[in-house]
Amino acid sequence: MQRLIECVPNFSEGRDEGVIREITAAIEAVDGVTLLDVDPGRATHRTVVTFVGEPEAVLDGAVAGAEASVRLIDMSRHAGEHPRFGALDVCPLVPVAGVTMDETAEYARRLARRLGEEVGLTVYCYEYAATSPERRNLATVRAGQYEGLEKKLADPAWQPDFGPAAFNARSGATAVSARDFLVAYNVDLNTTSTRRANAVAFDVREKGRIRREPDPLTGEIVRDENGDPVWIPGSLTSVKAIGWFIEEYGIAQISMNLTDISVTPMHVAFDEVCRRADARGLRVTGSELVGLMPLSAVLDAGRYFLRKQRRSTGVSDAELVKIAVRSMGLDELTPFDPNEKIIEYAIAARDKTGKRLVDLSLRALTEETASESPAPGGGSVSAAVGALAAALGTMVANLSSHKRGWDDRWEEFSDVAERGKACYAELLRLVDEDSEAFHAIMAAWKADPAVREQALLDATKRAIEVPLRVMEVAVSSMEVLGQMAETGMQASASDVGVGALCARTAVRGAWLNVRINAKDLPADDALRTAYLEQAEALGLAAQEREAAILARVETHL
């Protein structure tokens, strides 16, 4: 698995396009990093940059961006809506693939050291990279902001983790971390009042607000036995929030950092802000994503809003994304391009290694299959036919979920559609996996003689296991088709029948691949016997299911 880390540096410049371009160009010039997003804000006077790559390349990219920011940004002249204390204000690292959080924390400390030694920045480490519990929270580390930094550096308790302890008026200080995905998310209000926006922010943020009595707004601050203010917690855990006015849009917003979307997802935060705003006579008009977010967060939001409508959630990812964007008004202020705002899509859109087979049009896939190249071949076609079979079962489930008179059965059919979608998604993945397995065998033949035998064995096993997986998933899709033959819309019976025929074809086609590739294993190999026995059992199961489904379909024709 490729080892990927995401880096999300926040630079204290959101207005000068030339400066922003120069900083991002320095990052992008580093070999091995992919620039995913540049999100400047005039009111905040801040730009959030997102790039990914192998860990070492990401560290090089962060250092390059830091060097450019120190040269181009003068913090003594900076003012904006967002809290900040440095030219490169924060620089979090986020594990994406093949890297643990502990490893990411170590990379963050290495980056902090390099920023101190190579760039001369004053650096604090926070969150998972923190050197002490007191420095884990960014708000604590950045307390006093730039204006209070000189005094802070004079305090022995706040000596930096890396770099000079002397105040640098031009560059300020930088906070480096390792963290989970943080979703920076703003909710738009139909008001220009920062005070009213802050009231809603205090209602929802985990920290809440200071208790005042007798009047919650103007009363005396309630203190505990130590003289510290008593806080009333907000309604959303793992959420930081403030209210502010955005001059370029002429509206106030609730600006939130969702620090753990497994605890408080974006859609939950949106609905809670809607509820709290309504209680204060305000209306939510839309929302805005700053930077990128993981695909899972958008898909969860799409499912959430479909469930509220009592509609099937077993629709395509593209449809789920569309529902999420519309429901939360993510495109109210600026267009929302999934290929720019969803991290997995952004990485795929910038992948220069070539398009996947499943991204081709049907005509292009057909013509590619017909070409002189031996791959894609029968294995990929079997997987593709199986995906269409599962898609037909999913379609019937989705249609049945909103059939007139069946409103109380929507969850039943939604569950079936979800299972069908999982089948066709896996089979689509296997379309390319089969082609890659073939190319692995070709590469193994060219390997060094010292390792060729083992390479061929490993590649052959893969070339058997991929079509076996096609058989397994195609047989599973027949469970969906069988259920729809029994309980789905009778008007779609022919679609179920076509699905059963396609699923059986996928199984039989993949079975042929298993048998021909198994010939390259020794005849007495126990694994070869196991592969063939498993394939035969799946082939017989598919035959029986196809017969049962078609018999039921015949009763509806």
Description:
It contains 17 helices and 15 strands. By secondary structure, the protein is α+β, with helices and mostly antiparallel strands. The strands form four sheets. Strands 1, 2, 3, 4, 5, 6 and 7 form a seven-stranded mixed β-sheet that branches. Helix 13 packs parallel to helix 15 (449-487) and helix 16 (493-518) packs antiparallel against helix 17. The longest helix is centred in the last third of the chain and has 39 residues, at 449-487. The protein is globular. The relative contact order is 0.07.
Q: Give the overall pLDDT as a whole number.
A: 94
pLDDT < 50 runs, ≥5 residues: none
CATH topology of the largest domain: Four Helix Bundle (Hemerythrin (Met), subunit A)
Shape: globular
Helix and strand content put the structural class at alpha+beta
In percent, how much strand structure appears in the residues?
A: 5-15%
Domains (count): 3
Biggest sheet overview: 7 strands, mixed
Quickly list its features:
557 residues; alpha+beta; Formiminotransferase-cyclodeaminase, Chain B, domain 1; Alpha-Beta Plaits; Four Helix Bundle (Hemerythrin (Met), subunit A); 3 domains; 7-stranded mixed beta sheet; 4-stranded antiparallel beta sheet; 15 strands
Task: Annotate the secondary structure layout.
Elements: E1 4-7, E2 10-11, H1 17-28, E3 33-41, E4 46-53, H2 55-72, E5 88-97, H3 101-119, E6 122-127, H4 138-141, H5 149-153, E7 173-178, E8 183-189, H6 194-204, E9 209-210, E10 212-213, E11 220-221, E12 231-232, E13 239-246, E14 251-258, H7 266-279, E15 284-290, H8 295-308, H9 317-328, H10 338-341, H11 343-349, H12 362-370, H13 378-401, H14 410-445, H15 449-487, H16 493-518, H17 526-554
Parallel strand pairs: 5-7, 6-7
Antiparallel strand pairs: 1-4, 1-5, 2-4, 2-5, 3-4, 8-14, 8-15, 9-12, 10-11, 13-14
